Amino acid sequence: MVSMSTLYQELEQLSQGLLFISESEYPLEPFTLPAGATAQDASGFLQALGQSGQPVEEVTLAHFFRNMVRTSEGDAVQQENAQKFTALQQWLEKNLQDVKVYRLGQTQVQAYVVGQAQDKTWLGLKTTLIET
Q1: Secondary structure class of 124 (helix, strand, coil)
Q2: Which Pfam families would you find in this protein's record (predicted)?
Q3: In terms of Cα–Cα distance, which of 132, 119, 122 is closest to 11?
């Protein structure tokens, strides 16, 4: 079984230098939930963050990364980033179970990609999206 710290380090390496582009650019930061916490559903996840009562939207991983993995002809930097995001998405799908994406807030959205490791701990990535 792969340890949580190994998974966390791999996630750190895969997300290093990647910026999630919305109306602004924010880095992807690895995070873990406290022991015993769950992200099985939105209310459990909010409770784990200590943010109950926030509006939450759940989207699929594919939907969340859809603009990041799209390649455009002739833009080498964008193609390289698309490859990195594709590798990151594949890593998340391979190494974590029940991967979910939770979006908290309206204009300044806190986005969390979270899944469960084999040892039942929850980890993932968080970023900020600006959507006006």
Answers
A1: strand
A2: NuiA
A3: 122
User: pLDDT per residue over 12-21, tens digit each?
Assistant: 999 999 999 8
Query: pLDDT tens digits, residue range 38-54?
Result: 899 999 999 999 987 78
pLDDT reading at 77 higher than 90: no
Among 124, 123, 8, 131, smallest CA distance to 67 is for 131
4, pLDDT greater than 90:
no
**How far apart, in whole angstroms, are the C-alpha atoms of residue 83 and residue 60?**
19
Q: Give the C-alpha distances (Å, rounded to integers) separating 131 from 23, 77, 106.
A: 6, 23, 7
Whether the predicted pLDDT of 2 surpasses 80: no
Tokens of 65: 């990364």
Which phi-psi region, left, alpha or beta, contains residue 62 (left: φ > 0; alpha: ψ -120 to 50)? alpha
Cβ–Cβ < 8 Å for 12, 29: no
Instruction: Give every CB contact of residue 13 below 8 A, 6+ residues apart in sequence.
Output: none
